[in-house]
Amino acid sequence: MTIIGCGFISLLVAANSKEQQHKCKEVSISIIGTGEKYYIGKTDISEILKAGTNDRLINRPLTQINLARLESLLEDNPWIKDAELYFDSRSVLHVIVTERQPIARVFAKNGNSFYIDSSGLRMPLLKKVSARVPVFTNFVAAKKMSAKDSILLNEIKQIAVFLDKETFWNSQIAQVDIMEDRKFELIPVIGSHIIRIGKAEFIDQKLRRLLVFYKQVLSKTGIDKYSVLDLQYEGQVVAIQKGAFSSVDSVQLKKNIAELLKTGQLMHLNDSLQQASLRSIAQRVDSTSINYAATIESEEDSGSTHHDINPVLKKEPVKTKIKTPSVEDKKVKTSEPKKEIKRPKAVMPKRG
Description:
The chain is of the alpha/beta class and 352 residues long. It folds into two domains: 20-99, Ubiquitin-like (UB roll), CATH 3.10.20.310; 104-300 and 310-315, no CATH class. 33% of the residues lie in helices and 22% in strands. The chain has eleven helices and 14 strands. It has helices at residues 3-21, 42-52, 67-75, 147-165, 167-172, 203-221, 247-262, 270-274, 278-281, 299-302, 327-330; strands spanning 26-32, 80-87, 92-99, 104-108, 113-116, 122-123, 135-139, 173-178, 184-188, 194-198, 226-230, 236-241, 289-295, 312-315. The longest helix has 19 residues, at 3-21. It is elongated and about 80 Å long. The termini are far apart.
């Protein structure tokens, strides 16, 4: 063996020995979230890392740390969407975790509950923190979901994703009830009415019609005048009246709305609701069921991508029954005086 060959082998051995001396000096954990709070803590992540390395991570040789395996262990947690691990030049282990964001809490009929994210993934409840998200009730309690149950969960996801993106509706809708026929009813924060949307399809169009109704109808009649607002019919809002609306209720209504407007939760309705007078709020509507059709021009028809925030609400003409006069009413009794018939009188000749 030549001197050059021996020198090369010595360098390899020295390099390998130096690599063996590189040990994990520190662990830096970063959490990426899009909400107001973190649902996974650094302590939770550290415990997963310790469990994957037999509680021996610091001062452990880098060659004995399987980063891919640790990433997989972290992503097994349903609250962790993605995990990336790497070492820098100073032998510091960087752990970057992206957590899942809950968009709804679903309650089953047996009382159990869970969260779902925008992909529809089920996530268990957390002990230390709770999420302020819309609540869905009456979900199936079966441990193993059927195909119909999966479709229902997907509809829940559709509604929850829409509410998560729309600030106003996220503030206005407090609860979503799943009915026996697997249709949905929304329970609002303001108002004692029920909002029937049926299936989750076209949820954006349905609630857009409802916003029109809020701004142009309820701002005048009062938000508690109707017991049910039905959005299941295309292009319509069917409102079912529940009774008289007192002026006292209208005053309290305006106070409640004013408080929400201060917090910026109902800015979309500010103009129309502030202009509603107490007299118009207390106005009575004689019919017990009113059918409204919202005329909303689509983007394709208008050639514009701008959304009309004040679409026109057209009230269907009210059919009024006009009483038709009867035959007797039409007859006009006229009595003309009978003309006297002049008869010739007999003239007797004079006696001489």
